[in-house]
Design goal:
Elements: H1 2-15, E1 35-36, E2 43-47, E3 52-56, E4 68-82, E5 85-92, E6 96-97, E7 99-103, E8 113-114, E9 125-126, E10 148-153, E11 163-172, E12 175-176, E13 180-186, H2 187-195
Parallel strand pairs: 1-6, 3-13
Antiparallel strand pairs: 2-4, 4-5, 4-10, 7-11, 8-9, 11-12, 11-13
Length: 196
């Protein structure tokens, strides 16, 4: 009986998905059967990216900047007994669909196109305006097999000497992540901030 318990425990450890696998290629993305996240207390969307600053060259004022990527961990929280104390742990949850919430000036050229490719003689129709600046295809708006939800956004560089911000948040049903903010500055604004 003890051998059976050890075998079951070992097989469970080997088959569970880790947040950071040894080979990043093990985190597969397949959103065909994605579902909306449960709003019970044990599930959460945790921000994995940190805020950063992008400096645009003078020539790119009012043009597309370098794309930014935000990642979120969709996980189930649970407690395990570790002797006398309970330890909070998380388990990644794959195939949870999400919708991005992006605020700030974004590229109008990086847009999701719907109906593209269905009929080569008919051009694709642009998706809702709230998704401008998001080149990540809608078919990829779910957590991968390691529970990671990834969204790419192309901010717009501000006019010369100015700064702007782009914030990214995702939600799945009633589950909302924290927001990550990216500062977008032109070289002049970055230089002026460094002098202060």
């Amino acid at each position: 009986m003890r051998k059976l318990c050890l075998y079951l425990y070992a097989s469970t450890l080997l088959t569970t998905c880790a947040y950071q696998p040894e080979d990043a290629g093990l985190c597969r993305l397949s959103c065909s059967k994605a579902v909306i996240g449960s709003n019970d207390l044990s599930m959460a969307i945790k921000l994995q990216s940190s805020s950063s600053t992008i400096v645009c060259p003078v020539a790119k004022a009012n043009a597309d900047s370098t794309p930014v990527v935000a990642q979120f961990l969709v996980a189930e929280q649970f407690y395990s007994d570790s002797g006398k104390t309970k330890v909070e742990q998380t388990r990644p949850v794959p195939n949870i669909s999400f919708e991005p919430i992006v605020n700030g000036p974004r590229s109008t050229s990086a847009r999701n196109v719907i109906n593209a490719g269905a009929n080569p003689d008919v051009p694709g129709e642009y998706d809702n305006v709230r998704y401008i600046g998001i080149p990540t295809p809608r078919d990829n708006w779910c957590s991968d097999s390691c529970g990671i939800a990834t969204i790419e956004v192309t901010p717009l560089c501000p006019p010369a000497g100015q700064t702007s911000q782009v914030s990214i948040q995702v939600h799945s049903g009633a589950l909302y992540s924290d927001t990550v903010t990216f500062d977008i500055k032109t070289e002049e604004a970055a230089a002026a901030a460094a002098v202060k």
